[in-house]
Specification:
With 395 residues, the protein is an alpha/beta fold. The protein contains 14 helices and 12 strands. It has a 7-stranded mixed β-sheet, with helices on both faces. A 3-stranded antiparallel β-sheet has the order 9-12-11. The radius of gyration is 21 Å and the shape is globular.
Length: 395
């Protein structure tokens, strides 16, 4: 007999993926250039040429067994060492290779971090709005995800609700900053307050509460934004990173867990991740991608287009009467819909070939997400569609 819980999941497929599939199908009808597809967070800028050059050079000049053979279960030591050194240089940390575990993107990093610090039935708190895939990441591990209601004023943390929900059953808190879907970056003040409260409760309950920091958008931060490095402020932090966005490499599935050296039992956690891999079939990411990334750690793709797109959309949408907390990073924004039913709002938008994601899937009602990681030309052409949509449906 097949397992019912996974069969049941077929009834709740990702709304984001369904909308992306709709946009693709609509594109086959009218030309994809005419579909204003704001559904999927797929980077729209090319990988740095230096990364391509490194790949070509390695393929031409390196030992094929080194490039295509299995790496060690924790990742290639030289890669882990290079990442540790880069983080230390950038953020004033003191990581060593023993604190870095290579993963298949940030999703793989989160999956390992969760299993390191929770047991069956333990609770993990996260903050709305949140990435909906956190539900399977956490709940299928045996832990239980609980969602703290949003602070819709500025999408910083709702500390009153958080403190109420931070019971002795909570073993970890999962945050995402810069945030998908809001584009908001938690300020230094927010992180300090979060760290202080978690430290206080850890002492009160007599057990460690870990902070799992999901950071794939860490490099996409706009001018003037306060964007602290989370591990600087809380010792029991497991940083989960991906090069999908910074280097435009989502298909290569490469990232890591960085264990704060001051973390409780830090000397065990990376090796524990290796053991978790034995039970999940993770078995480390491709050797060639690990090696290539390690040679371009100080580089990113040209991420400036995302801020440009954000400014264009923010100006137009607010002029049309939308309320929106201005993003400080990522390539998402999270405006308030023009009616309470966000799903109905987004369905109406599709009549104008605007593909937007309703907010219910992110744990907030009455908003919608725009993933503006598309060509600036298409962003500019979508403005007329937004204007027609608003005037026809809401005025």
């Amino acid at each position: 007999m097949i397992v019912q819980k996974y069969k049941d999941m077929l009834k709740g497929k990702s709304v984001i993926r369904q909308l992306s599939e709709f946009a693709t199908a609509r594109g086959e009808e009218i030309g994809y250039e005419n579909v204003f597809d704001y559904s999927l967070g797929n980077p729209s800028v090319p990988v740095p040429q230096e990364f391509t050059d490194v790949m070509i050079d390695m393929l031409q000049n390196c030992d094929p067994m080194e490039l295509h053979g299995y790496s060690q279960s924790l990742g290639i030591p030289s890669v882990r060492r290079a990442i540790a050194q880069s983080l230390n240089k950038r953020f004033g940390m003191n990581y060593t290779e023993n604190h870095i575990f290579m993963t298949t993107g940030a999703a793989g990093a989160i999956a390992h971090a969760i299993r390191c610090v929770t047991r069956q039935g333990d609770e993990i708190l996260t903050f709305a709005p949140y990435f909906p895939e956190y539900n399977p990441y956490v709940n299928l591990s045996g832990a239980v995800l609980k969602v703290v209601p949003a602070n819709v004023e500025d999408f910083q943390i709702n500390f009153d609700a958080f403190e109420e929900m931070l019971t002795d059953k909570v073993m970890a808190v999962l945050i995402n900053t810069p945030n998908n879907p809001s584009g908001i970056v938690y300020t230094t003040e927010t992180i300090k307050k979060l760290a202080a409260l978690m430290s206080e409760k850890s002492k009160e309950y007599g057990h460690d509460i870990f902070l799992i920091s999901d950071e794939p958008y860490r490099e996409i931060v706009f001018e003037g934004t306060d964007a602290p490095y989370i591990s600087k402020f809380y010792s029991n932090t497991l940083s989960c990173y991906s090069y999908s966005k910074s280097l435009s490499l989502p298909g290569e599935r490469i990232g890591y867990v960085a264990v704060n050296p001051e973390c409780a039992d830090a000397e065990y956690i990376t090796n524990m991740c290796g053991q978790i891999s034995r039970g999940t079939g993770h078995n480390c990411p491709p050797s060639i991608i690990q090696l290539a990334v390690s040679k371009v750690l100080e580089l990113t793709s040209d991420l400036s287009v995302y801020e440009k797109n954000m400014n264009i959309l923010y100006k137009e949408l607010t002029s049309l009467g939308f309320e929106c907390v201005k993003p400080g990073g990522t390539f998402y924004m999270f405006p308030k819909a023009l009616e309470e039913d966000a799903t109905a709002f987004c369905e109406k938008g599709r009549k104008y070939d605007l593909v937007m994601v309703p907010s219910d899937t992110f744990g907030v009602k009455g908003y919608f997400r725009l993933a503006y990681c598309i060509d600036t030309d298409k962003v500019e052409r979508s403005l007329e569609a937004f204007e027609k949509f608003v005037k026809a449906e809401y005025r």
